[in-house]
Amino acid sequence: MRSSDQELSWLLENLLQRTPQTRYALVLSRDGLRLSHTAGLSVDRADQLAAIASGIQSLSYGASVEFGDGTGGLRQSMTEFHGGLLFIVEAGEGAHLAVVAGEDADPGVIGHNMNELVEQIGEYLTAPPREPQQSSRL
Amino acid sequence: MPLRSSATTGLKIVIVGGFGVGKTTMVKSVSEIRPLSTEETMTRAGIGVDDAQGVEAKSTTTVAFDFGRISLNDELVLYLFGAPGQERFWFLWDRLFSGTLGAVVLVDTRRLADSWYAIDRLEHHGTPFVVAHNQFGEPTHTLDQIRDALDLSGDVPLVACDARRRESSKAVLITLVNHLHALSSARQVTS
Ligand SMILES: Nc1nc2c(ncn2[C@@H]2O[C@H](COP(=O)(O)OP(=O)(O)O)[C@@H](O)[C@H]2O)c(=O)[nH]1
Ligand SMILES: [Mg+2]
């Protein structure tokens, strides 16, 4: 990630501030790991949200491949649950941006603002693939 | 026989085990329909988290679940759900386990400890299972040694397999179905 972590969390906080009813924002890697998130989200909850969001995105790709135009293209995933909304959009290569909002939030505004952020800084929101043969350091 | 109660019996089966043990490989090798794949490229964010030791060629990981289907004969259809292995996805397991009639636990002898969690969860749920040793290269342990190391009771079937081979994976599933049969027959005798 070229943009410094601090800058990125500032941009995420800013996204929440200008989007009514939003609670948390998180950037995650496509394999379900937290990259950066807003301060209101504890590290444990950020880890949880990263795993959930990667699963939803992956299932959405499956839906797109089977029932869309076959390209697997995805605009956004949105889930409405009791007490809130979850939005996920693709960010830069290998990464997704997720936002949790309150029940009464305006989905159009949230989607618009998330996509705007990705357009601005998507190239910095990346999680490059691991090198082949690269094993863990553990 | 409960398994034969209708012309076509669908059984929901889960395939569990640690990261990189071959769960996705098994669902892909046996499925007769295009398997649902939720494989995602492993990113650098996972270095130090997702331990690919021993399976260095692995470049993707399951982030939701694998799904496939196999008909063992005219009457019996298995619906296969492969669970994601890493701890961050364990929250999905409860949902995956609901309605499950049996499970396959895949083990890799280089990382046996990774399978303890799966076995614990299945025992806790009361889900019957068989254990399959997915062989990577020359076997270095006998099945008896694996049974001891896993502290498996004698009535849990333990077999060796190569998850990449359809016939081998199918044989594991047949072992599971036979085990389920034996358990349900035993229950009928005692009741
Ligand atoms: N040599 C060998 N490699 C295998 C075998 N089964 C799986 N693999 C490889 O091991 C890696 C992990 O398999 P995968 O099915 O993704 O594991 P999962 O995390 O349990 O779903 C992949 O690169 C497979 O190609 C096997 O039986 N023998
Ligand atoms: Mg897998």
TrEMBL record, chain A:
Task: Quote the protein name from its UniProt record.
Answer: Roadblock/LC7 domain-containing protein
| Classification via SMART domains | Robl_LC7
The record's PANTHER family line, in alphabetical order, gives:
SERINE PROTEASE INHIBITOR RV3364C
Q: Which organism is it from?
A: Nonomuraea indica
Q: Which domain of life is it from?
A: Bacteria
Q: Output the InterPro entries linked to this UniProt entry.
A: Mycobact_SerProt_Inhib_Rv3364c, Roadblock/LAMTOR2_dom
Q: What Pfam families does this protein map onto?
A: Robl_LC7
Q: Ranges for the Roadblock/LAMTOR2 domain?
A: 9-101
- What is the taxonomic lineage of the source species? Bacteria, Bacillati, Actinomycetota, Actinomycetes, Streptosporangiales
